Amino acid sequence: MEPLRSVTFRMVLVLWYLGVLSADVVTVRRGDPAVLQCDADPGDMLLAVIWKLRLYNSSCVILYKIEEDNTKTSYSSCSTRMRSDHLSVMINNTEISDEGTYTCEVVNDNDTVFRNFSLQVLAQPSTFLKLNSDGSPECGAIGGNPPAEISWIPNSDYIVTTKLEDLDGTWSVVSTFRKSGINGTSVTCVVSHPTFVNPWQEDIALSFGYKLRFDIILRLIVTVIFTVLFIEFLLYLKINCQNIPGEQKNEDR
After folding, report:
1. Distance between CA 250 and CA 253 in Å, rounded?
2. pTM of the prediction?
3. Given a cut of 60, is residue 101 above it in pLDDT?
4. For residues 38 and 175, is the Cβ–Cβ distance under 8 A?
């Protein structure tokens, strides 16, 4: 099953494309700063800017208001990494938990303008390809957001892929190609992710190590046995050759 957060984000994108939800999709890498900018008519008198954040696992509000005496007040229940500067919200050192919908309400002396943003924070996964304990190729993409997509060359019905959400909000994807379904001597794992310029891929050869080691040991044992037998045979011939002249001398006497 596809992760709920990934499905929700895609639903936001679909609604945006259909025009049902007017939202600007903003994508940023984890750790980088993000800036969300609202629009306003410079000719209007700005009274207040209200940011309503509906994040993955929380919600908060940022308020910037100009009072009647022209004094400016601000309020925030959001992370200290987020601050408002008139019409914008700046997020320092973005984290996966910052993902969500950001709605700004710009209140002026004529109207109230709304604008929606959908923020996605990308995290690049680390990849690996190895043989697991039973000799089956196992490919993984750890710590990514959104979850990485893993495919195999060749494709097969013997592939099992799992996706798990980590405590920090990233995803670990592990795909196993059961060796019973592999006909060739090697397979290729392909990992796709928005943070990769090109898909990551790597080949791995199937290990017949235990069979090879057994064959080597067997050949070694057979070689040793034949060598011992051959040496014993040579010793036997040598001993017999040495005894023959002595027996002939005894017979002459």
Report:
1. 5
2. 0.69
3. yes
4. no
3-state secondary structure the chain: CCCHHHHHHHHHHHHHHHCCCCEEEEEEECCCCEEEECCCCCCCCEEEEEEEEEECCCEEEEEEEECCCCCEEEEECCCCCEEEECCEEEECCCCHHHCEEEEEEEEECCCEEEEEEEEEEEECCEEEEEECCCCCEEEEEEEEECCCEEEEECCCCCEEEEEEECCCCCEEEEEEECHHHCCCCEEEEEEECCCCCCCEEEEEECCCHHHHHHHHHHHHHHHHHHHHHHHHHHHHHHHHHHHHHHHHHHHHC
pLDDT tens column, 142-181: 999 999 999 999 999 999 999 999 999 999 999 999 988 8
| Residues in CB range of 51: below 8 A, 6 or more apart | 61, 62, 63, 78, 84, 89, 102, 103, 104, 105
Residues 100 and 47 sit within 8 Å (Cβ to Cβ):
no
Phi and psi dihedrals of 96, rounded to 5? -60, -35
